[in-house]
Structure formats: C-alpha cells, structure tokens
Amino acid sequence: MKILRFTILPVFLAALWISISEFVRNELLFKSYWIDHYRNLGLVFPSEPVNGAMWGVWSLLFAAAIFFISKKFNLLQTTSISWLMGFVLMWVVIGNLNVLPFSLLIFAVPLSIIESFLAALIISKLGNKKADNIKVKT
Known about the structure:
The protein has 138 residues and is mostly helical. The chain has five helices and no strands. It has one domain (2-126).
C-alpha cells in the first residue's frame, strides 16, 4: 500500500489541485477574454466537455511529471522546472499559433507559478523520495 500512499495519492491530489486552479482561472476568471480573443480571430473558443476532459488529462500528466521531477530536485527547483515545462512551453506553442491572448499573461504568469508551487508542495509533503525503491508484492 506504500505505492498508493506515496505515489498515487500525491499525484492524484496534485492533479486535483491543478484541475481546480485551471478551471477557476480559465472558466471563471478569464473565459470572456478567451472567447473575445478567439472571436477576433474568427474562431470559436473550444469549451465542449471533451476539451475539459483533455485538460483533466493534462493536469494528471503535469502532476505525474512534477512527481518525477521532485525525486531529483528540491521544492524550488521542482517548481521552476515544472513551471517552465508546463506553462512556458505551452505559451510558446499557443503564442506561435496566435491563439494566446498575450494580455492575460500578466495574470497567468503569477497564477501559474502559484499553481506549480502548490502542486510541487503537495507532492513534496505527501510523496516519499525513497518511494523509488517500493516494490509491489505479487
């Protein structure tokens, strides 16, 4: 049961936090910015349930990546690497596709740093760096 307590639970809780953070930021706080930006591009902002589900998958993958990064780095390093990997790279891509409302970055940068830090903190507090050696009994 160590794998559940020290691996699955921290990743799940971090993914839950990331999902909540993303939902609040993009659906409750800034959805009108996204809709207007897409409308000005002649596009419809993708907000069907399948899009939400894919953000859930992204949150889980991001949390798992944070978990693995945390095995080798301290909290500040894990936060920095995770934030760069999860957000900066995403913004480069969607900026290149011209679907990023750059005016949102003034809010998105600090909020995403907080999101990355709290996810890394959850994993740091609940995960076990020695959990790499956990063997599942069969």
